[in-house]
């Protein structure tokens, strides 16, 4: 078997797995610059050595979902492929690397050149993360030919239907809502109501992950937030990190959050969270709440399925697969199931699958696929690239 590396090259995180390993590594796909530590830079997972995460600058290779800052991305790849992480021998290694849907030809060509001419990998496959997830799903459920992948990541949410692991291109749907927009909206709400946190992206991303959830009954929870005392079950206080005693923020226990804010002996700084806990991630289901004139998740799913051949539609509704970091919000699966059920025909069965770790599921799918015979025809070798160049790449990686 080849020495294979699967690189799920997300806009926020890189998910990496290599042949012989069972664990998927997740590292940040960014360079961090600190205001406090003499403008020191931290590449990807080296951020773990940072002592003060306040006011970190993110230097991102991706802009609006597409890889544009090649110098930054190369620094991160050099670190990942180097001795500190994977320690690769490029000429003996084959790589499966993901790219966004609707990627630009110029970006694809640059990626081909870097992987073949600079790193000199033995062979590569360039593919979408949702396609790898489809391969994993078909491996786990061999009796199913259809699968609808909902990939809600950092920049976008894509809804992609598959038949026998071939995506139905004309039915792919994109919603311009992702984790970055949700974090930015939370920063704006907190800054307007309580505390200036527009420069605290790293911390507010943690607040989003720790405190936000998807509401199962939006109007009822809004009414709950107007109540006082113990009846307000939504209100919670979040203790912000000070990077001396508190390294990471946390939600206070319910009983402590209900009390008026006394002067703390430890001088801890808190923010009080109520409606923003569920109104901010609600953008996924109603993008119009922040002025984005697009369908929400449930409407997008039904719209995508309506673009598929009629004979596939019941099977797609029965095999909806959730991947991406936004699927980790509490109640995400249940709310989506409820909303899709309301819109779908009554006679059709709906089943939504949330993997144990939706962020690494695609990477696992790449490794599973690499062990199958079906992948052999998709590898583009160094020799074939040298002979045919970019024309050969276009033939090997159309829309697999």
UniProtKB/TrEMBL annotation:
A Pfam family reported for this protein in Swiss-Prot or TrEMBL: Actin
Record's subcellular location: Cytoplasm, Cytoskeleton; Nucleus
InterPro entries: Actin, ATPase_NBD
Domain of life: Eukaryota
Keyword entries, A-Z: Cytoplasm, Cytoskeleton, Nucleus
SUPFAM superfamilies recorded: Actin-like ATPase domain
Primary subcellular site in the record, as a coarse category: cytoplasm
GO cellular component terms attached to this protein's record: cytoskeleton; nucleus
DNA repair as UniProt keyword: no
PANTHER family assigned: ACTIN (PTHR11937)
Family note: Belongs to the actin family. ARP6 subfamily.
Protein name: Actin-related protein 6
Native organism: Phallusia mammillata
Lineage, highest ranks first: Eukaryota, Metazoa, Chordata, Tunicata, Ascidiacea
Gene from which the chain derives: Actr6
């Amino acid at each position: 078997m080849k020495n294979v590396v699967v690189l799920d090259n997300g806009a926020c995180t890189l998910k990496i797995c290599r042949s012989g390993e069972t664990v998927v590594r997740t590292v940040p796909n960014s360079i961090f610059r600190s205001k406090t530590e003499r403008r020191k830079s931290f590449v990807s997972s080296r951020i773990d050595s940072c002592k003060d995460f306040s006011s970190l600058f993110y230097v991102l290779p991706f802009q609006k979902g597409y890889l544009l800052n090649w110098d930054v991305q190369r620094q991160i790849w050099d670190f990942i492929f180097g001795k500190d992480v994977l320690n690769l021998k490029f000429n003996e290694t084959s790589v499966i690397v993901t790219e966004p849907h609707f990627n630009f030809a110029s970006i694809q060509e640059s990626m081909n050149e870097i992987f073949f001419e600079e790193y000199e990998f033995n062979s590569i496959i360039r593919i979408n993360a949702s396609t790898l997830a489809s391969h994993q799903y078909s491996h786990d459920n061999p009796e199913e030919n259809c699968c609808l992948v909902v990939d809600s990541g950092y920049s976008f949410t894509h809804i992609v239907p598959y038949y026998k692991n071939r995506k139905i291109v004309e039915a792919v749907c994109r919603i311009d809502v992702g984790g970055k927009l949700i974090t930015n909206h939370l920063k704006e709400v907190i800054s307007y109501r309580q505390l200036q946190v527009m420069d605290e992206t790293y911390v507010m991303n943690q607040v989003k992950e720790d405190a936000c959830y998807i509401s199962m009954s939006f109007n009822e929870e809004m009414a709950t937030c107007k109540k006082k005392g113990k009846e307000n079950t939504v209100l919670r206080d979040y203790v912000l990190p000070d990077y001396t005693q508190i390294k990471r923020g946390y939600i206070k226990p319910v009983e402590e959050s209900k009390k008026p804010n006394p002067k703390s002996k430890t001088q801890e700084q808190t923010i009080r969270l109520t409606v923003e806990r569920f109104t901010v991630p609600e953008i996924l289901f109603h993008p119009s709440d922040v002025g984005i004139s697009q369908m929400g998740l449930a409407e997008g799913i039904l719209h995508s399925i309506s673009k598929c051949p009629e004979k596939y539609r019941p099977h797609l509704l029965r095999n909806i697969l959730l991947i991406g970091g936004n699927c980790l919000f509490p109640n995400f699966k249940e709310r989506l199931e409820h909303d899709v059920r309301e819109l779908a025909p009554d006679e059709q069965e709906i089943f939504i699958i949330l993997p144990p770790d939706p962020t690494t599921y695609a990477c696992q799918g790449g490794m599973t696929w690499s062990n199958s015979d079906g992948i052999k025809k998709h590898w583009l070798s160094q020799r074939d690239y040298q002979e045919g160049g970019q024309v050969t790449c276009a033939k090997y990686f159309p829309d697999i």
